[in-house]
Amino acid sequence: MSFDSRELVLKTIMDASKDSKVYKIGVHGLEGVGNMKMVEDVGKQVKKDGLFDEVVMVVVSQDATVSKIQLQLVGGMNPKPDVATITNEHERAKQLWLRLDNGKKNLIILDDIWHELSLDTIGIPITGRNKVVITSRNRVVWKNMETDTKIQIKVLSDTEAWALFKKKVRNSIDSPELHDIAKEVCKECQGMPVAILVVGGALKGKEKYVWKNALEKLKKSIL
Q: 166 phi and psi, to 5 degrees?
């Protein structure tokens, strides 16, 4: 679904990607607000608009190592740099640097970073026409990696959350029997799109007692 809050964030990131003075774009959002979905949409949009010659996305995650990130980068490139026989991270970084410092416009998306990373060590040059989009749940990562702009993805508004919930569960929740409890369940999802989709999918077509049990569990949980 298209929501005004998400369209605004997408536009802000797109504007930053077009700004010649911006090289590192920081995107922050709590777990479950849709960070990955947002940067995936950014990647699709810049490809559609022809803003970059190449777009490569890497899901970093908590257990990231330089080697893992490098190999994900290689996997997303076409043509790929010749690093098949290279086991040394430093030498691999040199090849990646040469591959990306090619005078073309390259967008590198590093999703779900948990701690500061050295782009130089990985082999990502922030020179010429290259840009990097960094997403993290931790605001400190933005500061440590010295992003040029910082963009926050917030939770959905009450109206947006209910619209998404209804789309997932379908119109059965408009019945007098379920409407009020469905509203409470949706509220307990706290505007988190991932929680709304998971909970809504689990309750779709279920009887009222199942909804009540789910609501009690949600009230005791911490999203």
A: -65, -40
